[in-house]
Write a structure and sequence with these properties.
This protein is of the alpha/beta class. Helices cover about 35% and strands about 15% of the residues.
Amino acid sequence: MLQAPIGILGGTFDPIHIGHLRPAIEAQAALGLAEVRLVPNHIPPHRASPFCSSEQRLAMVRLAAAENPGFVVDEREIKRDKPSYTIDTLIELRQALPDTPICFLMGMDSLLSLPSWHRWQELLSHAHLVVSQRPGWQPDYPIEVAELLALHRTQDPQDLHRHRHGHIWLADNLPIELSATRLRALLAAGQDPRYLLPPTVASYIQQQGLYQPAP
């Protein structure tokens, strides 16, 4: 018998903010996820090195998880000494959780860039994809993504309970136009980040003197 599905949200989290957390909270409620695992990475494969250290980013993710019931921190990627590819993490999770549906949470921008991901064709062999999108937005899908959606999209959330992997579910989320880049710029300008990230994370950033204006 299958267990209740879990959500997986990976990222650099530099810092973690409501643009990460709010879609995950909505997916948790809409899909009845048993838990949401936040998976900070140590060496991101597709972007520049993070501003903050792995230890600092992990600390912020732990603080954010503590404020959200059902959220936990998975440290497997932060402990790797090589770039973290999603497929490797999903394979590890599938081996550890053979009877648990796994829902990999991502934004629409990530889905649109999926053909550039390492071994992207294998992702649905290990997990479902839960994609956060702005209500009413009609993206211009690359042909590979359009074909993937034609084969795997479902509008029935129960499919993510009945099967371990293999489905794509598009979630209409409350639109939040916030990126870590924009948030870092706001902090560097000395502006108040209130309501943009958990209060405990904001306090940690202030205490550690992170993302501060250049002297």
